[in-house]
Specification:
This protein is 33% helix and 10% strand. It has 140 residues and is α+β, with helices and mostly antiparallel strands. It has a 3-stranded mixed β-sheet with strand order 1-3-2. The chain is globular.
């Protein structure tokens, strides 16, 4: 049986090796299970469940506890932006994909939320069909 991943589209799956793909990183070495068998594999498969994905993401970040006037994530102080300010993010590519490949308008947080729900409920096969010419991030 595959491990269900709510934040992946339905039909997208990967088989990962416990060693090289998961626990051989300095970030995860302390999380190795016992017994640890690097050659063991685990299959993960997307369910495309937007609501469950949102709950999962919210559990990773603390958006509520802030002892300052303003915070970014996890209670870290975030000063107000002033003067000339330029920021770069992968957010641009996400919105670009939604607008150009999915043909969805994104001019407000509400439209972004609605588009994300639609995309999450779209199968991996349908996403690849809609995104012809877009760089494939995974090969199923």
């Amino acid at each position: 049986d595959a491990l269900p991943i709510s934040c992946w589209p339905q039909g997208f799956s990967r088989e990962l090796t416990m060693g090289k793909d998961i626990y051989d990183s300095s970030c995860t070495v302390g999380e190795r299970p016992s017994p640890y068998i690097p050659s063991n594999t685990i299959r993960m498969s997307g369910t495309g469940d937007a609501a469950a994905c949102r709950v999962h993401v919210d559990s990773l970040f603390n958006f509520k506890d802030c002892s300052f006037s303003t915070c970014s994530l996890d209670g870290v102080f975030q000063p107000a932006v002033s003067g000339n300010f330029i920021a770069f993010s992968a957010f641009f590519y996400t919105v670009d994909f939604i607008r150009n490949s999915m043909k969805r308008p994104v001019t407000s947080p509400g439209e972004l939320d609605q588009a994300s729900r639609e995309i999450c409920s779209t199968s991996w096969t349908q996403l690849k069909e809609k995104a012809v010419g877009a760089q494939e991030i995974g090969r199923a």
